[in-house]
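Q: I have 357 residues here and want to know how they pack in 3D. Can you give me a structure?
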Amino acid sequence: MRYWLKFLGTALLAAAVALTALPITLDAAETPAKTLFGNKKLPAAMAAHSYGFYSKGCFSGGVAIATDGPTWQAMRLSRNRRWGHPAMIRLIEKLSREAQADGWPGLLLGDISQPRGGPMLTGHASHQIGLDADIWLTPMPNHKMSYAERENMSAVSMIKKGGLTVDDRLWTPAHAALIRRAAMYPEVERIFVHPGIKKKLCDTAKGDRSWLRKVRPFWGHDYHFHVRIGCQPGSQGCKEQEKVPAGDGCDKLDWWFTEEPWRPAKGPEKPKARDVMTMASLPKACRAVLDAPNPASEAAVTMGIDGGMVASAPAQLAPADSAAEPQVDTSAAPIAASAYADTPETGAPLPRPRPAN
């Protein structure tokens, strides 16, 4: 009995010591990955590689597209999401230039990725490996917008209010030409749009319709379209998405125009994946990406015209003190675009079973 009491006392002491140290370990392990990646201001100074999947991964060697170019302007600058794999940034610059030659005034760029990818503080489930980009369907204005304009300007939905089809008062052949231009690039694997936009394209596209197979219907993409390119050479840890099904997809739209896709889910909403994802959920390489040193400066990793790196720091629309949060005149309208602010509810239901995307 004395032996067992001694053994029990030793065991309890060991357990107490272990428990004393446990909270520190658990806290570090369970910090949401979105917090760790969302607070990185600059990319990982490493070779360009994507790790994991579009909705569960990270990337190294990221570059930013310049805030302004002759054929684009970046929006929602407070989010710090104009970063991507160099191949993605080069494609955006090329699209902006060639679309303008087609007659589009210039691109307004939405979210690409955080500097090192990973789950975002708010918003998207994807955009984690530097190979996704959102492009507004609103043409670029004919002036250089202020910081406040970029934060507060509302994107315009192409869908009729309360309906599921395109508003013909807003939609133009130029919109269709812009999406077609992006879909024609061989490196583009998917373009996500609202089902009503896909239907409009199906109803009006003439001649070669092969590009339509890349245009995939999805919730929420009524004011922008989402461009996704494939895993790039050298990214062995990048998980490819399944190939898009054969055909133009125009014969598989009926489900989207029933009540089912838009019916609110019953019961309590499940936590969003980005809100519960920890580092343990991501590829092991993402720890090295997170811990990697910063580049020398933002300018050193900012891409400008024709895919070249800018020679000097990009024009700053926010105050020059990079250590401080940008100060914006909010008297006209509230700024709801900050990466630290809650994402506004869009009314889109939770995803339900649907034709393969």
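Q: Anything worth noting?
A: The longest strand covers residues 188-193. Confidence is low (pLDDT under 50) at residues 1-28, 311-352.
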